[in-house]
Amino acid sequence: MSDPATPSIVTRDLNLWYGKFQALRGVSLDIKHGLITSLIGPSGCGKTTLLRCFNRVNERYGYVTTTGEIRVLEKNIYDPDVSLIELRRSVGMVFQRPNPLPLSVYENVVFGLRVHSDSPPTRATLNEAVEKALREVNLWQDLKDRLHQRATTLQLEQQQKLCIARLLPLKPEIILMDEPCSALDVEGTAAIEELMFSLKGKYTIVIVTHNMAQARRASDECIFMLLGQRIEHRRTEDLFIAPENPKTAEYIEGRYG
Amino acid sequence: MNASPVPRFGETPSVRRRLRRENLARWVFGAMAAAMVLPLVLIVGYLVVRAAPALSLEFVLDVPKRGMTEGGIWPALIGTVYLVFLSLLVSAPIGILAAVYLNEYARENWFNRVINLAVINLAGVPSIVHALFGLGAFVYAAQFGYSIISAALTLAIMTLPVIIASTREALASVPRSFREACWNVGATRWQTIRSVVLPNSISGILTGVILQVSRAAGETAPVMFTGVVFFKAVQRGDLLPYYLNEQCMALSMHLYTISTQVPGVKEAIPFATAVVLLTLVIAVNAAAIALRVYLRSRKKW
Predict the structure, then answer these.
(1) Four-way CATH pick for B74-298: 3.20.20.20, 1.10.10.10, 1.10.357.10, 1.10.3720.10
(2) Contact list, B11 vs chain A (CB under 8 Å)
(3) pLDDT by residue (tens digit) across B169-194?
(4) Which end of chain A is more exposed for a tag (fewer CB within 10 A), N or C?
(5) Distance (Å, rounded) from C-alpha B277 to C-alpha A80?
(6) Could you tell me the end-to-end alpha-carbon distance of chain B, in angstroms, rounded to an integer?
């Protein structure tokens, strides 16, 4: 496992263009291991784009150009010997809208295992993985008797937890969350935040959020972005109580955004 | 964890195996896609090579001579143009307006579902059955006799359901939010359709209609039962040789007769007829594509 002292994700002078539009401008940051780091900023500031760089899903679109360096767990992910398959196994993503596959709860959780194993895993391995993953996201009690129900029929909150559980059997190091609570109600949001706290330490979590209050209560470190630039990156308490940059101060006071 | 010689995120043997399978799959799919091109090239190439001795502008403009064993195909070509044009003149307005009703006005109820079912089933009826229907309905019951009108109406019935289906698809692809924006400034449904829905779906609607041209031009059975004849004497190059209550010639039928019914036809003539029919259809499709590209370039989204 990685040494807690070294950052999980390091970017240096990262630039990204969608066609001619520059979405990221010289972003350099160190995301610490095992903490929850939130990315905040007004719409269009590049926070989701930055998040999607970390497991290279942006490249699916042909018109994206990236320059600069991203090191995940001390490995430059743009090195030619990097396999996207292995990278995405270690760096999982949770989306804004829960996107469980139209399969049973059980099959959703073991989907990654099946994809990544050469010979079909044994029933026992799969059963164990399902129980472990669902326990980790606090769904086991609710769903243990309904493992063969269709995942798309669950409540949204349960679906989102399941989407997190789906990543865990692959033993990821980093979990990226793109506004994971924006489709959920108050209770669902609270449950997901609680879950983030319980996963913290084991996994490095990066969360994009529109909700400043959520960033404040649910993250250890906070990165404020504006117009594709990193403006400020500090401990969450410090950033909200004593922001250094006047732009940050105005944003958290709600002057714009 | 990282004791293995494989670098972090490097390709493990397992990943390599999966990538090999991935490449194999991609190759198989690609080969199947390429396989579609091969028959097309072969068919068109074969036809053109065999037709070459007879193909000329003269062949297109001239009338058949010596008991159809020589000469050209003008009466059949112009007959096909008549039939296609007339049938679409009937089926396009009915089909498009019906589709607008079904997609924009009708509520989801049993009546709508019955219409839907009828449209789908009508689209699946074999053309020979349409032919028989046309014979009974237009030639005898409506007393149009064996005529261009009967044949065109039969073709119209045949193309109608497909036009309805393709138009509905084109209308359904206009985002709902456009309609909501319109309703929210107080526009009626008809105003919404006229100003927003139709302008944004017209390219898809026209494509659907024009694709039916090739179907109408190629069908033999429906026109053979209802108004197309073996031979009809026509002036060379005459643009308006037929009255609508007369019978006419058509390319598809002509191809059938000179290939199977008439002895001693010059070998290249059936092939040349096929090439002209194919060219007509491809020309219409090309026009459809050009129109679609043009209309799409005017689309604002």
Answers:
(1) 1.10.3720.10
(2) 81, 83, 86
(3) 999 999 999 999 998 999 999 999 99
(4) N
(5) 54
(6) 51
